[in-house]
Design goal:
20 helices, about 70% helix, mainly alpha, two-stranded antiparallel ribbon
């Protein structure tokens, strides 16, 4: 048994740099308050919802729509950092250790983590209906913008030199947002919550996951090798000092990979193809979105190659150039990156049956893409809460690597390699993001970037 004292959550500091210190549990000898007994290794903050405001459904929808849906610029990592800063660091709906555990547990679910976190907080505030509304509020602005972008693209594409110039300037700015947000989210990813120091095993897990991504281990057939689950298990073995199973499992992943390469060759995204969308009919688009959404563990970076194979390589009803453009557009919109599926559905519907079918295809594939995310998060809310508090799973979820951080960094590096002007814009954006923390800063930077592009990239 461990003795800790009751603390007043209202007295916690709101300084972002002190977020870890502000959420430590005080020792009884420091406070002089009467102690309360809790079980060893249990954090009372994991069950404390006393700071969560009970909002009406309308206020809840507007809160998530305005604070997160409209300002979800910069991709998944930036969105997660925005949610963390607002609801955990500033408003203190829940403690930071609980947020870290929730984030890790939700990574094992299919779908974009930022949308799932909004649903989680919506459930805390107004039950499951609140969770559904919070998720819709977060997704809706990006969906509408992508629908508009899909229509405009069908009219002109990127052939207009002025539009293309602005878009080229905006991309390195978004790359800066991604890297800044990666720093925010990853800041505590390798920190042991007990010692408050960097855990060498978590650092090792992050490095090995980066290696696995480079070797395409995370892309092999049927997602046999998924670092998210593998290193969660490995870290759980380390935490219990089960060294022999840890060593065996660690070695087995690379032995299995070597055998796969010997008999099947280097893993390729084509290995993921199921042939479920040979033609872009509405039913095929829905199934494509549903399967891609069910496979999107860790966010869009696992759904992208699957849809690419089905639509571009197998179905051949979408060209590679158009597919790359849709990913680029998805990265600059305030939405989960899986919103690129809306664009794919629009283009598929356009090929299959005209403009009306295009809008229907966009809606259908988006519903399919987000359906698993809503079902698992909303229906399983109570079970997921139990997993967050489960002591046995604590080590596993803390050891799970952040897949979306690595994918985001890769995207950032590709963008700033475009030209010297893009690299300068990237550095200026990064400096501004570290200097100014106002939530309007990303929006103003995108506007300035679009204007700067007219002077830098018009040919």
């Amino acid at each position: 048994m461990t003795i800790v004292s009751q603390s007043n959550p209202k007295s916690l500091t709101t300084a972002p740099d002190a977020d870890l210190e502000s959420q430590k549990v005080s020792r009884p000898e420091e406070t002089g308050t009467s102690p309360t007994l809790v079980h060893e290794n249990e954090d009372p903050g994991l069950e404390d919802n006393s700071n969560v405001p009970q909002l009406s459904l309308f206020k809840l929808f507007w809160f998530f729509f305005y604070n997160f849906g409209l300002f979800a610029w910069g991709g998944p990592v930036a969105q997660i950092a925005l949610i963390k800063d607002q609801l955990v660091i500033k408003d203190k709906w829940i403690t930071l250790p609980r947020f870290q555990r929730v984030f890790s547990v939700y990574q094992i679910l299919p779908g974009p983590e930022a949308a799932e976190l909004c649903m989680f907080f919506g459930c805390l505030s107004a039950g499951r209906i609140g969770g559904i509304l919070a998720g819709i509020a977060f997704i809706l602005p990006g969906f509408l913008l992508m629908l508009l972008a899909s229509y405009l693209y069908s009219l002109a594409g990127f052939e207009n030199k002025y539009f293309n110039a602005s878009f080229r300037a905006v991309q390195p700015i978004v790359a800066g947002m991604i890297l800044r947000a990666t720093h925010k989210v990853a800041d505590h990813s390798v920190i042991d919550h007990v010692t408050r120091k960097a855990n060498p095993y978590l650092v090792l897990a992050a490095l090995c996951t980066a290696l696995n991504s480079a070797l395409r281990i995370n892309m092999s057939i049927s997602y046999s090798f998924i670092s998210l689950g593998l290193y969660g298990i490995i870290y759980a073995l380390i935490a219990r000092r089960w060294w022999i199973p840890f060593i065996l499992l660690f070695i087995l992943q690379y032995v299995g990979y070597a055998l796969y390469v010997v008999f099947r060759g280097v893993p390729s995204p084509v290995a993921l193809a199921l042939g479920i969308a040979q033609t872009p009919s509405l039913i095929n688009l829905f199934v494509l979105g549903l399967v891609a959404g069910s496979l999107s563990f860790g966010g869009a970076y696992t759904a992208i190659p699957f849809i690419q194979v089905e639509a571009v390589l197998k179905g051949a009803w979408l060209t590679q150039r158009v597919f790359i453009d849709c990913i680029a557009i998805g990265n600059v919109l305030p939405a989960p990156l899986v919103i690129f599926a809306t664009f794919v559905g629009f283009q598929g519907g356009l090929v299959d049956g005209g403009l009306g079918n295009a809008f229907a295809g966009a809606v259908i594939i988006t519903l399919g893409m987000f359906f698993p995310c809503f079902v698992f998060t909303i229906a399983g809310h109570n079970l997921l809460e139990k997993l967050v508090r489960n002591k046995i799973l604590k080590s596993s979820v803390e050891g799970s690597p952040r897949e979306e951080e690595e994918g985001s960094i890769d995207v950032a590096l590709m963008r700033i390699s475009q030209s010297a002007s893009a690299a300068v814009l990237y550095m200026l954006a990064l400096a501004a993001l570290y200097k100014f923390t106002n939530k309007y800063t990303p929006l103003l930077m995108l506007i300035c970037g679009a204007i700067a592009g007219q002077f830098l990239f018009v040919e």
